Amino acid sequence: MLTLRRLGCLMLAAPFAVQAAPPKVSEFKLENGLKILVQEDHRAPVAVSQVWYKVGASYEHDGITGLSHMLEHMMFKGTEKHPPGEFSRIISANGGSENAFTGQDYTAYFQTLEKSRLKVSFELEADRMRNLKILPAEFDKEHQVVLEERRLRTDDQPRAKLAEQFDALAYSNGPYKNPVIGWPDDVAGLTVADLTDWYRQWYAPNNATLVVVGDVVPEEVYQLARKYFGPLKPSVLPPVKPRSEIEQLGIRRMIVRVPAKLPYLVMGYKAPVLKGAAEEWEPYALEVAAGILDGGNSARLESRLVRGQQIAAAVGAGYDLYSRLPSLFMIEGTPVQGKTLQFLEKALLAEVRKIQDEPVAQEELDRVKAQVLASKVYERDSIFYQAMQLGTAETVGLSWKTVEEYVDKVNAVTPEQIQKVARKYLVEDYLSVGYLEPLPIPEGAVAPEDRAPQGGQHVR
Amino acid sequence: MSAKYLMRFLGIALLLAASQVLAGPKIQHWTGANGSRVYFLPTEGLPLVDVRVVFDAGSARDGQQFGVATLTAGVLDTGAGSWNADAIAQRLEGVGARLSTGVSRDSAFLTLRSLTDPKLLDVALATAHEILVNPTFNPVDFEREKKNLLVGLKQREESPADLAGIAFFRTMYGDHPYAHPKDGDIDTVEKLSRDDLERFYRQYYVAANALVVVVGDLDRAKAQSIADGLLAGMAAGSAPPAIPEVPQPAAANSVKKAFPSAQTHVYSGLPGMKTGDPDYFPLYVGNHILGGSGLVSKISDEVREKRGLSYSAYSYFYPYRQLGPFMMGLQTKNETAAEALKVLRETLEEFIARGPTEKELQASKQNITGGFPMRLDSNQKLAEQVASIAFYGLPLDYLDTFVQKVEAVTADDIRRAFKARIDPAKLQTVMVGGFDSAKPAR
Question: Which architecture does CATH list for A252-439?
Fold first, then answer.
């Protein structure tokens, strides 16, 4: 139940005309401040409902990291009306699937249901928006679950460990330096009182967006939402402190040494995002630059470093223009056997330099745009993904309309603009580099007593 | 609204809804020009098409050359006809198409997603055709893909979850072709040559061993020309003999491997069922109650909700052509591994001894039947369903009768089927983790 900021292959899209009419989004607002976005998709008798709260790890301060995520877990643990576990049982009995995720900028809850059951979702979500009851006994158990989640996702994964320490290096004072799941001591120290305060502070209709995508009629969704969410009281929301990241004044480096088998490196350049961008075209140009580097098998990193020069076994570049605060333009790679991290880093930097020095070929740019356009159609095959896009844009403080503008804005990017942003942002002073240097993993030999018959085994 | 009232109210809504969603999509089926089997499902609403070409050429066909199926599929799109890897990637990405290849234990597959605009689709199809019918197995590309696969195999060794999964299959399947990891082992992949791949390709990538699935916004004539065009010129060949039956282990077994991780990963299970198994529905519905329905399942409730021992705890049947695994799994801090395994085992034993209550059975049926529309709510999911029906030879009305067959399952059916299939005294168990927390010497 956790989504970290992604680093991966960009799904970009195309220079031919879109053949499907773009989906229409209907927007409503209740008197208590709840925003409602509805997108129709009548291909199957199904609807997804998502409630997005404007709170996440980047709203937390030192000492309480992981609080938003822990609260997300407790949101399934009962209200005045519904005892712990009943939320999930009711959704399940209605054929629904449900879950939740926490990121730096949001906490979101969702159900996918046959369309006539939408009211079930609304009734339960409205209830837990204001009436959560955090029981100490339930908290104690779930606290253990979250500690297990941290061990699973971070502590026992060499690359996740590098990523966590890398963020702490790349950011000095900005909140993205903290992991979404929280630092071990902070998570261990969370209390019922911390969670209760956090819940009271942020969980209110005027801090939430309800997104519904599926086989629905917007006006009916609005009426249903009014019925269930309408009676909820809004809160006075505390102002969110800016916490702008200080300017980076030179390259930063780190080494993480953990038991592992493969060396690996990550590089991140401080970069603006759509929200708060001085020049609106710049994030789109960075998006296309990421596509030039890593928009598929024909893109530069794969064709030159994996195939041509055979320096990397795997490479990637990624940039997420939908975050609340300025973020990182990321590049990552695993060297082939026999090549060093230093060697791979040089090759990656040379590729960045080429983007700065030479305008990208029109054919190359067209290919990136072709993928952007096709992806836009493919994405519509998933109602969940469509809802995700609307919810993300709205929650980081952009309008959902930016999702609609995406293809046009990407299409408008020129080779000169790509060069400009590369020269301005993909520069050494804004760069952080992290190396994963493997330590030997002790042999996992099967000890004689490990072959004991079943029953009463002891692992250690 | 009280909770009780809500439940009753929802019960009514459920009955009404169920009757509306019983009809599944109508899959069309015919034999293609060169003897391959073709399955087509027209869809509407988006100008896209999903194509899958599936061969009985999964890792179970590796013989002693573990990894040859994976590497063969992996090299296909790196050179075909007169195109090298760059040209193939540029052709596909220039029209916004997505193509991938891969294997499971039973099958090898190529998937292609494209827009339906003929200018774009035709380029994508022509490229996929060359990949399928005229791959070149270039020595340079072969060597590179092999090296990169070896890097991937090495990475598995830093993951206690991967190591536990590999050990579980080896323990459960002994020397059956399902036993080895589908991507092979480092020592077997190191020995593979380019000619091994070509030999594997010539034997298994043949029309008599192929099926084509087309799902998208097209008419039947277009689907027919797509299927025939994709495999035009492919050798007819013959279908391979059946994979051998899976023997049941004679006795319980427990394997532990030390690994320097904070958690111990636990898998426990037995060979479970085949695709199209006569007990499929009792086992599927029963397992949904036991460990297959997320947080509301019994295993998750006992391990996670009641005791906070693991982030995820579950059980699944994975039906294969021959007996696929029934596997229970969890991860927990090293200190509680023995306790968590005990809870897992007791939950299973109690379920087999007593079976589900009527209330549990009802709740699971409601989830499965009420959630049926969500199995078919995207082009991609439909393509996956059709490919699975086609590959495993399930009846074409499988989706039409699915809800009915779930409804027909009784608590007695579940008790009988579980007793017949899962003997808790013979569980195969693997634990990886539990290494002393001291850091290795630097």
Answer: 2-Layer Sandwich (3.30)
Nearest residue to B363 via CA among A10, A91, A268, A113: A91
Any domain includes B166:
yes
A314 to chain B: nearest residue by CA?
Answer: B148
**Same domain membership, residue B298 and residue B190:** no
* pLDDT 10s digits, B335-384: 999 999 999 999 999 999 999 999 999 999 999 999 999 999 999 999 99
Query: Measured between beta carbons, which residues in chain A are less than 8 angstroms from residue B312?
Result: 152
Catalytic residue of the set A72, A138, A142, A287? A72
Q: In angstroms, rounded to a whole number, what is the distance separating the alpha carbons of residues A226 and A119?
A: 11
Return the domain boundaries, chain A.
25-229, 252-439
8 Å CB contact of B262 and A155: yes
- Mutation target to probe the B interface, by most B beta carbons within 10 A, among A80, A97, A152 is A152
Check which CATH number belongs to the domain holding B86 and give it.
3.30.830.10
Task: Answer whether B258 touches A (CB < 8 Å).
Answer: yes
CATH entry, A25-229, from 3.30.830.10, 3.40.190.10, 3.40.50.1860, 3.40.605.10? 3.30.830.10
What domain range is B159 assigned to?
A: 28-231
* Distance in angstroms (rounded) separating the CA atoms of residues B416 and B279: 10
Q: pTM here?
A: 0.93
Q: How many angstroms separate the CA atoms of B146 and A170, rounded?
A: 35
How far apart, in whole angstroms, are the C-alpha atoms of residue A374 and residue B292?
35
B207 and B267 both lie in a single domain: no
- Please confirm, yes or no, whether A428 is among the known catalytic residues: no
- Model pLDDT for residues A222-279, shown as the tens digit of each residue: 999 999 999 999 999 999 999 999 999 999 999 999 999 999 999 999 999 999 999 9
